[in-house]
């Protein structure tokens, strides 16, 4: 669940762009379920995961 709070809060993510780009494990994209979800969302195909 995503909660948006305006103002300063401890233990909060302020730069969501960097947070979401750097908060995953490469193996997450290798499962067939992840590939299907990505395909369903925007039609992209996961070709390979560079480690």
Average pLDDT, rounded to a whole number, is 81
Oligomer: single chain
Main sheet specs: none
Kindly state the number of beta strands.
0
Number of helices: 2
The dominant shape is elongated
Fraction of residues in helices?
25-40%
Write the element-wise H/E pattern from the N-terminal end onward. HH
Distance between the termini: 29 Å
Structural class: mainly alpha
Low-confidence stretches: none
The fraction of residues assigned to DSSP E strands is under 5%
> What does the radius of gyration come to?
15 Å
Verbal overview:
The protein is an all-alpha fold. The two termini are 29 Å apart. Helix content is 33%, strand content 0%.
Summarize the structure.
Helix content is 33%, strand content 0%. The chain has 51 residues and is mainly alpha-helical.
How does the SSE layout of this entry go?
Layout: H1 16-21, H2 32-42
């Amino acid at each position: 669940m995503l909660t948006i709070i305006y103002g300063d809060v401890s233990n909060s993510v302020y730069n969501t762009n960097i947070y979401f780009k750097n908060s995953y494990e490469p193996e997450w994209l290798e499962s067939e379920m992840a590939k299907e979800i990505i395909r369903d969302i925007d039609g992209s195909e996961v070709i390979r995961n560079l480690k």
